[in-house]
Specification:
five-stranded mixed beta sheet; two-stranded antiparallel ribbon; alpha/beta; single chain; 214 residues; 14% strand; 7 strands; 9 helices
């Protein structure tokens, strides 16, 4: 059975600009910084045909840091009564996908559960960034920035697209440096799970104290 890989996008026709959204990779900050676009879903293999002449862009981040951000944002220390977005202290999307997660679970257990589920069998926040941005081994967006250098990359994008909106930072997850969550085994486990992000986007496991959190 043929299965389309949908990607959520935001389109600004006046700017001839298309943003390919990646969860927990400055998605909230980008939507805040450049409001007013039209949200859509499409198979990005048809991106150029659907939006000819538009500049497509996205942002990626260190996959080890991204997973810590997801954990701290989507797993509550303990359940909160009557929270429909976090039933029993777990992000609703994880529950709907049937992932065996629980409030207060340690990061090690969270990472092991995450790594046991492939992109096609997991929730969007746990999918690889390559799942959203790569088709047939090629990066789809014309411009690819990095969260670690977002201020500079956003200025470059603005110059290319002809807008003057400054980048704004929203929804920064509060946590210790991401490297403190890992031991050697987990570094390798998560690196193997997100190997497409590591290899295609050129990431290593290493601290980057200048990186903004999103």
């Amino acid at each position: 059975m043929f299965w389309k890989r949908w990607t959520r996008v935001i389109v600004w026709d006046d700017l001839r600009l298309v943003y390919l959204r990646v969860p927990k990779s400055a998605n909230s900050s980008i939507r805040l910084s450049l409001p007013g676009g039209e949200q859509q879903r499409l198979d990005i293999q048809r991106l150029e045909r659907r939006f000819p002449g538009h500049l497509s862009f996205s942002f990626v981040r260190n996959p080890w840091a991204r997973l810590v951000s997801v954990y701290c944002d989507k797993i509550r220390p303990e359940p909160v009564a009557d929270d429909p977005h976090f039933p029993n202290g777990v992000h609703r999307g994880f529950v709907q996908r049937g992932l065996p997660m629980r409030a207060g679970m340690p990061f090690e257990e969270f990472a092991e559960v995450t790594c046991a589920h492939a992109d096609e069998a997991t929730e969007k926040h746990l999918m690889s960034q390559a799942f959203f941005l790569v088709r047939d081994g090629a990066i789809v967006p014309s411009f690819l920035g990095r969260v670690e250098s977002m201020a500079d990359d956003w200025r470059s994008l603005a110059a290319m697209a002809g807008f003057e909106a400054p980048v704004m930072h929203l929804n920064r997850t509060q946590h210790a440096d991401y490297t403190s969550y890992y031991d050697g085994r987990l570094v390798n486990l998560v690196g193997d799970r997100y190997r497409p992000d590591v290899e295609i986007f050129g990431y290593d496991f290493k601290p980057d104290p200048a990186a903004p959190r999103a």
